[in-house]
Amino acid sequence: MSAEAELSAVLHGKGQHGPARASLPWRRFAATATRAADAALPWLLPVALVALWFIGAEQGWISPQVLPPPLFVWETLRDLAVNGDLWLHVSTSFMRVGVGFAVGTLLGLVLGSAMGLSRRFEAYVLPTFNALVQIPVLAWLPFVLLIVGIGEPLKYILIAKAALVPVALNTLQGFRQTPVALREVGEVYGYSRRQQVLEIVLPHAVPTLFTGIRLGFTKAWLSLVVVELVASSEGLGYLIVYGRQLFQLDLVMAAVIVVGAIGYAIDRLLDRLETAVHRRQPGGAEP
What we know:
Blueprint lengths: L2 H9 L6 H23 L3 H16 L10 H14 L1 H33 L1 H14 L4 H12 L3 H25 L3 H9 L4 H38 L5 H10 L3 H32 L7
């Protein structure tokens, strides 16, 4: 290419590196815009619902006694935070769900591991277990109430039962999904039963175990609110019942928002931990 032709190509953006250099800022902008759109997409529906709530309150579509205005609910929530009542109820609920979830998770891991390691034990226990887990938490409430009374043990037992089910089932699934070829390799190398479990089965089961723990906490949190609705004098569930009894729907809405926000935040945290655990496992990849 002559000097004149090369100069003309550069001036018109047609040099060897012209198109790539010209398109690089646009590609970066497009990638940034795509990431922003992906991040904003989950918030479209909540924002639309809140906007509809504002408009409905302003236009009087629904009576304020039925659906309080958002600003009224915000003021109630702020008052609860300032006078300390909100933190009292939140801390009480966290203590209950923490104890129940810990006990349920431990029992679920033990039960799921036992079924995963013994086909005979699984044959004895799993059919009955599958039948019992179909019974909702509220159906167990009268029976447990007769045994332990209406105190804190009642709440711990029902929350633990809710957490135990997904943890046990996912533990069983995790132990069963280990590739048969890896087990055979362990047998060829003379691995003992304990070595096979710790070095072959467990590493491949960890992601599934963590999924069960995450689901267990979700079930425990939902059961906590249900239990506090019917048998408690403190906690977020009690706050909802108290507001309903006084027909203070702003208090009910404030408590519901807190329950949803805390549950969502904890679920996101567990999701990040699950992703981190998966990346550390053999064959783990970026999501």
